[in-house]
Structure formats: C-alpha cells, structure tokens
Amino acid sequence: MSIAAREAATPTQRAIAEQAHRLFHERGYSGTSIRDIASAAAVDPSIVMRHFHSKAELFARVIGFDAHFTPRLDGPLETLGERLVEYLLAPEHAEMRRTFTVLLRAVDHEAIRLELGQAMSRLMVEELGARLEGADAMTRAWLVSAQLMGLVQAWDAIEHESSTGDGRTRLVRLYGPAIQQLITPGP
C-alpha cells in the first residue's frame, strides 16, 4: 500500500490511491488514465479529480519517492561514491528502484519532471552540495544525482549480471569511482 493510501482521510481516497499506485506501477504514467483509476476504484472520475486535483499530483503522491529514497550522506566524503552505489543496489532497496524507474519513465511530463527534480534536490542534492568544496559544488551534487538516476535506468539491463553479492560488489567497484570523482575531484 502506498503512503498516500495509508494517509488517506477516507475509504474512497484510500481506494483511489491504492488503485492508482497499482496501475502506475503496472502501466506507467502515460499508460494510466484518470478513467482507468476511477474504474478500478469504483468511483466516478470527477471524484478522483476532486480528491487529487490532477493526474500528475496523484502520481507524485502515490508513488511516494520520498519514503523510499533516503541515502545517508554523512560519513567520510572519500568513500561516499561507493556507499551511494551500494545503497542504491542493495537487495532491500528493490522497491525503491522500481519506484524510481516508474518516476524516470514519466519525466517527459513537465509536472513529473519538476516533482522528481524537487525530490532529488530535497533528498540529496542540497545536503550533498553543502558538504562539497568548490564553486561548482551544487553542480557536482546534481551530477551525482544524475549518475545515480542513470544507474537505476541501466539496472534493468545489467541486473542479471549483478544480482549476486559478487556481481553487486563488482558493480560498486566499477561505478563508485565515477561518482566519487564528482564528490572529490582530482587535480
């Protein structure tokens, strides 16, 4: 059940949020309409709009990226690149990767792109940028965010090679230094 469904004030809102969460994960943003969600929740489409105002707002609320993506940015900067990759690829974060993938596939919609950018800024970029040195610290923090998003997008293609502990360790060793270079650039 999504966070929006758990926090819903009424059974109708809960039903809408649950069905929207299911359909967005199954069909993606573009493949899901307000009518589809309303039909699955057994309500009129106007009820969906009354409670959630727009498809983009409903999507952002039910996907609940904030609840899934909580990287630890403390600790030594010198090892942060590998730690971020380890975090992202950990087996217990499979749901986070699925949620991230659903969001990334919907970024061609302006409202979703803005929501994802705001979430990444709030959840990682601002804190990381404050820890980095140099005039380009915020730019590098955004690039770290982009590298992590790229890894999630590539995960579908490389998961079969990296699904074992040894495979994940190898991927962390390969990808971590690229991210580390943005965190602590060399001369």
TrEMBL record:
Domain HTH tetR-type: 10-70
Coiled coil stretches, renumbered: none
Keyword check for tRNA processing: no
DNA-binding region residue numbers: 33-52
Keyword set, alphabetical order: DNA-binding, Transcription, Transcription regulation
Domain of life (superkingdom): Bacteria
Pfam family, one: TetR_C_16
Record's keyword annotation contains DNA-binding: yes
Protein name: TetR family transcriptional regulator
Organism: Streptomyces cylindrosporus
